[in-house]
Amino acid sequence: MANKLVASIQLMRIKNLGLALIATPLGAAFALLDFKSLVDYPEVFLATLSVLFFMAAGNALNDLSDIEIDKIAHPSRPLADGSISEHEARLLIGFLSILSVVTLLLCLTSMQDSQQYTAGIYVLAVVLMLTYDHGPRTKEKGLIGNLAISALVAAVVLYGASSIEGLGASLCWYVAGVVFFVNLAREIIKDCQDMDADGASRQTLPMRIGKENSRMVAYVLTLIGIVFLYIPYWQGPFMFGQLLLQSPAIFILMGLNGPMWKGEDYVAATRLRIAMLLGLVGFIATILL
């Protein structure tokens, strides 16, 4: 029993669920421009739980759909090494999906208005996840899959904002823009890094236009991410002088031209993730200070 529990936790990829735990309440806080007020909105807690269960189910579903590939590429994963059966994985996915829907419904019930936006974002995320892993399996179609994953990541911020009926706040859209474009750049760089391993199983952007051109596209996307990082300090709601708090993220993003030009894909992908996190920290610091 203990081994099955460990395998189930590994299947859900608990370490990767930190984004939901952070980004959902952050989306609400960015809409409110206040962190203390979050305690007055139980909807945020329920929305966070629904995203956690959703992402855990999605991670397990991804492993279930890639079980044959993982037997070769990642033989230590629980489905690939037989620690948990396909039937047990399906039961786990179903249980997590039910928990996600239940917490979503509780969230919608707690809201006074604009439930359609929260429900709409959730449905969009379900469609993106199912089409990514199953028909038409967008993860095999390179750039389309990259766009789907980046949209899913950005949607978490908007989902958190929608739970407190805060989609009218411009900041949450700017933050979602940063997350979308920086994550998209990172997905393309990761495809450059994995091009040889992907073989004939995927048709990625680097396979279509080459690694150098793909890195150039990724850098342009990075610059667009910087623009979204900059706008809240230019157009509001923040003051221009507070842009200094984003200098670590901007410095890393601007400096990516070197690693990308040299083909240091692992370095570039790692720095893109760090810069995205530092950007979120910069927004948090701006609100707190």
Overall description:
- There is one protein chain.
- The radius of gyration is 19 Å and the shape is globular.
- The model has no long low-confidence stretch (mean pLDDT 89).
- The protein is 75% helix and 0% strand.
- By secondary structure, it is an all-alpha fold.
- It has helices spanning 2-12, 18-32, 42-65, 67-73, 86-110, 115-133, 143-162, 170-193, 195-198, 205-209, 211-234, 247-254, 257-262, 265-288.
- It contains 14 helices and no strands.
- It folds into two domains: 1-168, UbiA prenyltransferase (Tetracycline Repressor, domain 2); 169-289, Up-down Bundle (Four Helix Bundle (Hemerythrin (Met), subunit A)), CATH 1.20.120.
What would the keywords be for this entry?
289 residues, Tetracycline Repressor, domain 2, mainly alpha, 14 helices, Four Helix Bundle (Hemerythrin (Met), subunit A)
Choose one word for the global shape: globular
- CATH architecture heading of the largest domain: Orthogonal Bundle
Kindly name the structural category: mainly alpha
Tell me roughly what share of residues is in helical segments.
over 70%
Unreliable sequence segments: none
Proportion of strand residues: under 5%
Order of helices and strands, N to C? Answer: HHHHHHHHHHHHHH
Going by CATH, the homologous superfamily of the largest domain would be UbiA prenyltransferase
Average per-residue pLDDT, rounded, comes to 89
Total count of helical runs of at least 4 residues: 14
